[in-house]
Amino acid sequence: EKGLERLLLAMENLERISPSPSGTVDTSQLEANCREAMNDDLNTPLLIALLFEQVKIINQLLEGAVSIDATHLENLKRVFRIYGQDILGLKAEKAGRTEDRLPALVELVLQLRQEARQRKDFASSDRIRDTLLKLGIEIKDTKQGTEWRLL
């Protein structure tokens, strides 16, 4: 389970990495090695080992210990997309978790807005409404309470 978490975290972190003009990381053989593992009677243990080697590199990239150019970074992302997500079924749950949490977060913010309105702090109430609108969340005050929807 910890291994799975490491792979998923690496996939999320991969999106935060920016390419350098020149890099020290070479991923030119990575895709061929992964393809070879799959052609070897679907050798998923080897494929997973290859991906874990890249997890180390991703962590080094985040720490600034090594650098990667745009071509090799795109290759690394493609390998994780094809072999990590499509073949092994690893999905970074970040988006799903965010969507699952969004209603609770909006309800919390609306509760804070309601408390501000009860204190007659309309400036704060308006600021919350305006900020939510800028974030793509429209709120509407009704007799039954505050309703919201995504724009």
Topology:
Blueprint: H1 2-14, H2 30-39, H3 44-63, H4 70-87, H5 94-118, H6 122-134, E1 137-142, E2 145-150
Antiparallel strand pairs: 1-2
Helix pairs in contact: 1-3, 2-3, 3-4, 5-6
Describe this structure in words.
There is one protein chain. By secondary structure, the chain is mostly helical. It folds into two domains: 2-87, Up-down Bundle (Four Helix Bundle (Hemerythrin (Met), subunit A)), CATH 1.20.120; 94-150, no CATH class. It is built from six helices and two strands. A two-stranded antiparallel ribbon has the order 1-2. The relative contact order is 0.12. The model has no long low-confidence stretch (mean pLDDT 89).
CATH fold description of the largest domain: Four Helix Bundle (Hemerythrin (Met), subunit A)
The SSE order reads HHHHHHEE
Individual helix count: 6
Spatial order of the strands in the main sheet?
1-2
Write down the CATH class of the largest domain: Mainly Alpha
- Principal-axis shape: elongated
Question: How far apart are the first and last residues' alpha carbons, in Å?
Answer: 37 Å
Radius of gyration: 22 Å
Unreliable segments (pLDDT under 50, ≥5 consecutive)?
none
Per DSSP E runs of 2 or more residues, the count of β-strands stands at 2
